[in-house]
Amino acid sequence: MEEHLLMQILNLPSPAGFRANYILICDNPQVKVPPAIQSLADEGSIRLLVNEVNKGPSYTRNRGIEEGNSQWILFLDDDIVPSRDLLSAYSMAIESHPESLGFVGVTEFPEPFNDVTNALDLNGAVGFFKMSRFKKEQAWAPTANLMLNRSLLGDRRFREELTLGGEDVELLTRNSQDNGKRYLSLPDAVVCHPWWNEGKSQVRRMFRYGYGNATILQLPHIRTYSCLDFSTTIETLFGLVLLTPFMLIGGIHFGTVLTFFVIVLAAELITNAARSITVSQKVSPALIWQMMLHKNAQEFGFFWALLRQRRFSSMCRMIDFSFRKAHPSPFRLNRWKIVKLIVTAVLLLLLL
């Protein structure tokens, strides 16, 4: 618990006609509660709950939902810095749209300051956090700064088995589809989120994101918004590994087989290098490496979940996270997919 951050949240002014009840839940039984936080809990200004064992984000959020009884539930990460008028922005939205499914605020990140944070920004890892600046409504959003209407949420809860990620996408899209509504964007409700771990590598986080996405892909309300896609690099390499014995038995020279692997890896490197240079407007081997590393960590997490769960039929599939249209068209192209296809074709012509 960071006292100076939490106090900024707990000291937010309540709008006229509204009462804010704070429930602070810590998912760490060994936590040392800061004196100021403990004092607020002792005097009854906040409800402080500590899980007896580490239960994960889904259980913790569900506990918060069950402990409260207000009509509107505001989720905030404990490490954000809120704007002073955050609650006012939400209260005005409630008054204007009392039947809304919920509201999504803007979660800003500081300017990238090193290769890791630049890679996360350029790869789009933080794009969904600030989507409210660009879209009027959304099917889901990260729970760092999000409000739900309790009556429309009903008895739906976060799936507690989703311990590695995907729980926010799963619940919020399910809630949206069941109600036939989307969450309204609220660009005036702004918080600032620090870079995770002070800008250190987020390979594990990206792996968890991929793992969680693959796990929820099997759920009907998610799979309906998925489609076949070109294989990722890790999926292509896995396919080549499976095909290698058959290629060798069929008389293909080992050097040729090895060349296939080299082409796949080279195409990934060249495409990421081109993308890094194009979007950052600079040549930085370190940035190229971080962009490729974090992108492939997420793709490997997706692949590893499918492999562990023996869901091979879900490989070469992607989720359309906009959730705009059921059964989206397969094999959708973008600039960088086209570049990778061209690079792969050129390498095949040159090396084989």
Automatic annotation (TrEMBL):
Mind listing the GO molecular function terms for this protein? glycosyltransferase activity
CDD domains associated with the record: Glyco_tranf_GTA_type
Question: Does the record bear NAD in its keywords?
Answer: no
Q: Cross-referenced InterPro entries, in alphabetical order? A: Glyco_trans_2-like, Nucleotide-diphossugar_trans
Q: Where are the transmembrane segments?
A: 237-267
- Key words, A-Z: Glycosyltransferase, Membrane, Transferase, Transmembrane, Transmembrane helix
What is the superkingdom listed in this entry's lineage? Bacteria
Residue limits of the Glycosyltransferase 2-like domain?
23-115
Pfam family of this protein, just one? Glycos_transf_2
Q: Is Membrane a UniProt keyword of this protein?
A: yes
Instruction: Check the record and name the PANTHER family matching this protein.
Output: GALACTOFURANOSYLTRANSFERASE GLFT2, RHAMNOSYLTRANSFERASE WBBL
Q: Which family, according to UniProt? A: Belongs to the glycosyltransferase 2 family.
Q: What is this protein called?
A: GT2 family glycosyltransferase
Native source species: Arcticibacter pallidicorallinus
